[in-house]
Design goal:
By secondary structure, this protein is α+β, with helices and mostly antiparallel strands. Helices cover 44% and strands 10% of the residues. The strands form six sheets. Strands 1, 4, 5, 6, 10, 15 and 16 form a seven-stranded antiparallel β-sheet that branches. The protein has a three-stranded antiparallel β-sheet with strand order 3-2-7, covered by helices on one side. The protein has a two-stranded antiparallel sheet with strand order 8-9. The two termini are 50 Å apart.
Length: 727
């Protein structure tokens, strides 16, 4: 589950009891680092749109008895990264992929090596890049492995029985510690969340009810159930800090809409769940709040631990994995609008808030940053605390920033980098094919360009955004649920006139996409108008049309979401007992089918409609250099030349045979024509009966000609080339 900026520091993570003594220092100096960094980069501008995607993959082993995790993520990532480096050294302009570690030891993440540009050609390059990455990953797999782009392993917690449970890190009765990436950060993250919380995490999801289902909930007890989910994330580089804050607000509203459209998580811990998305699962899996912080009452009598943020007793509404908490745009014409629609109470660290304001950070941004610091840093490395220079480094700020996993992340420029201000959309679920993943990526890019180019906004009260996040989880939400949305795409300044509720109504996703009544045009028509207004080239326009058609058909119910399709696959499987249980053989067959769909071996019309995915093959994964070929001996070269000389003779012979076949077919056609003429002459159509002698003549002539034709057919078939031997 994308870490979105977390740096994998090499070193020794401090055990939680040691780390507690340094929490206050990291929080305080994290605020200082943000202030220094913000001042250095506040005027940084980038005129060109850049964007990129992140796709996560799981590696699975298939066997006759079922499916299991393939815990080779680190090995596969190293192999692929080394191959990229080799290609880049040989062909400097080459190299297409950057491979990253992920939480699960069965997972890898890919990003394009270079971001996409703001030109229309790159809208088509998105899918090409994704296909290339899939092909390269295929190259690294063993014969019994597959890597379909599914969100979750169906049998997590119900397989890998040979590995011990109750390990010292996760202390899980369902999954072994071996499923965690071996890098020290991931184990420390897992253990420290559990220790700060005071217990194992508790993941609870509603159980899908079928005829023979028993129980009403699915329960899990480890971070792996959430952070082992794969997703699709898109990051946008903005023109400047102000535009990045405006984009953050707009993406916060879009986030639940895109999650519902990409819903792809119908299975948890070997059972069908009654939700379609992963978000709540992940949120619960990293919930490090203490008992007091999770309380429902207003006050607590506990003194807590003064080393923790808020002494560990401040009431916090959500896990640190949650929807965006507040709007941040400060544009002069939208500032009051953003503030007006911030109708949800936001917990803040008061000392951080006061310091930020004293240093000139405006109220909206100060609130956003101070909200990050109601959490504690989860991983502190030995020797990287007081030793960090606040005037140049951002380690402490990023420690908090990277472990506040919100639906949208606002990302300041990295230190010592040419990269600008960015915003990351984090809610989309990974799809089975690169066509779908590209479709949703490109759609998000174009919707954002529409909002910026036409100077529109889609603000709704933040409480409605949170309600939309909840609604997006429901089964069938993409085509059946309604969401809060603006009824008027208005120009700046107008949203803040009158009552903020007046222009917010409930709409289906189909209405949000295609329009409602005469007052709301819909996102898709706006996208198409935008492309027409910039003079988009026909090839790109055609591809984008295919993408938006897919998305609209998802919203109408004409095409299924991946969640609906997978749930139906399980329920229609011959081994399914109508008990909501996904057996090992069902999981194996599901993963095999998902893999086949992803590489284009199987077309699934209920998911893709008429969009056929071209085959993805590992043989096409890498560029092949036109280098000199060196043979060890002259005899090996002669042997190879002899083989190709023999092949040339066979090709020549095949050509002659094909010509013979064509000639005989022509002769056969002539004879059949002659036979027809004789039959017509011997069988008058006026019904007059032939004489016995004429019948006898017809019979003899017919038999002779039939024998001749049969002989010619036999010759023709003997000369026919074998299938696949085309010229």
């Amino acid at each position: 589950m994308g870490k979105g900026g977390a740096v994998l520091t090499v070193g020794r993570p401090l055990p939680w009891q040691e780390a507690k003594d340094k929490l206050t220092y990291v929080r305080q100096h994290g605020v200082d680092q943000f202030i220094q960094h913000y001042r250095r980069h506040a005027t940084k501008q980038r005129d060109t749109l850049l964007y990129g995607d992140e796709i996560e993959y799981g590696l699975f082993k298939l066997s006759s008895s079922g499916a299991s995790l393939s815990l080779r993520g680190d090995e596969v990532r190293s192999l692929l990264s080394n191959r990229e480096a080799e290609e880049r050294r040989a062909i400097p302009e080459s190299g297409k992929v950057t491979w990253h570690p992920e939480y699960g030891s069965w997972m890898v993440e890919s990003t394009p090596e270079k971001p996409y540009s703001g030109y229309t050609d790159d809208l088509r390059r998105v899918e090409s890049s994704m296909r290339s990455r899939r092909a390269r990953l295929l190259m690294a797999l063993k014969d019994d492995e597959v890597a379909p782009t599914v969100v979750a392993f169906p049998l997590l917690g119900a397989s890998n029985e040979e590995l011990p449970r109750n390990g010292p890190v996760a202390s899980s009765v369902l999954v072994p510690d071996e499923v965690i990436n071996p890098h020290p950060r991931f184990g420390a993250l897992t253990k420290n969340i559990r220790e700060r919380r005071g217990s194992n995490v508790e993941v609870v999801a509603p159980l899908f009810q079928d005829d023979n289902t028993t129980g009403d909930a699915i329960k899990a007890d480890a971070m792996a159930f959430g952070m082992g989910c794969c997703c699709l994330q898109v990051t946008f580089q903005c023109r400047d800090v102000d535009e990045s804050r405006h984009v953050y607000d707009q993406l916060a509203v879009l986030a639940p809409i895109m999650m519902a459209l990409t819903a792809a998580t119908p299975i948890l811990a070997g059972k069908l769940q009654d939700h379609d998305c992963r978000w709540d699962i992940v949120s619960q899996s990293v919930d490090d709040r203490t008992v007091d912080e999770r309380r429902t009452s207003l006050s607590s009598s506990s003194k807590g631990d003064k080393r923790l943020a808020g002494s560990g007793t401040r009431k916090l509404r959500t896990s640190r994995y949650a929807a965006a908490a507040s709007y941040v745009c400060r544009r002069c014409d939208l500032h009051s609008c953003a503030a007006r629609y911030n109708d949800v109470e936001v917990e803040v660290d008061e000392s951080a808030l006061n310091k930020l304001k004293r240093e000139g950070i405006d109220d909206l941004l100060a609130t956003h940053v101070a909200h990050l610091f109601v959490r504690d840093p989860l991983v502190i490395f030995d020797g990287l605390c007081e030793e960090v220079d606040d005037t140049t480094a951002t380690d402490h700020f990023e420690n908090l920033q990277s472990t506040n996993w919100n639906s949208v992340r606002w990302k300041p420029p990295p230190a010592d980098s040419q990269i600008g201000w960015r915003v990351e959309l984090r809610t989309m679920e990974v799809q089975l094919t690169d066509f779908e993943n590209a479709a949703f990526t490109v759609f998000c890019v174009l919707v954002l360009r529409v909002l910026l180019s036409f100077d529109l906004n889609i603000y709704v009260p933040m409480s409605k955004v949170h309600e939309n996040m909840d609604r997006a989880h429901s089964r069938g939400a993409a085509s059946q649920q309604k969401f809060w949305w603006r009824s008027h795409m208005v120009v700046p300044g107008e949203p803040c006139t009158g009552d903020k509720e007046e222009s917010v109504v409930e709409m289906t996703l189909l209405e949000i996409l295609t329009g409602k009544g005469g007052y709301y045009p819909g996102l898709v028509p706006l996208v198409l108008v935008y492309l027409d207004s910039i003079g988009c080239d026909p090839d790109t326009a055609s591809r984008v049309q295919a993408y938006v058609d897919l998305i609209v058909k998802r919203a109408s119910g004409e095409l299924q979401t991946a969640a609906a399709w997978q749930r139906d696959f399980v329920r229609q499987h011959k081994d399914y007992r109508k008990d909501s249980v996904v057996t090992p053989t069902i999981a194996r067959d599901l993963l095999q089918r998902c893999h086949a769909i992803g590489v284009g071996d199987v077309h699934e019309p209920s998911l893709l409609g008429e969009n056929v995915v071209a085959p993805v093959r590992k043989e096409n994964a890498y560029n092949v250099q036109l280098s000199r070929v060196h043979f060890q001996t002259s005899s090996s070269l002669c042997t190879l030349l002899d083989q190709y000389a023999e092949r040339a003779l066979l090709v020549k012979k095949r050509k002659a045979v094909v010509e013979d076949v064509a000639r005989l077919r022509n002769e056969l056609d002539e004879k059949e024509k002659e036979l027809k003429e004789l039959n017509d002459a011997l069988e008058p159509s006026n019904g007059v009966q032939r004489s016995p002698s004429l019948n006898r003549l017809h019979s003899e002539e017919g038999e002779n000609l039939a024998v001749t034709l049969e002989r010619m057919r036999g010759i023709s078939e003997s000369l026919e080339p074998a299938p696949g031997d085309g010229v």
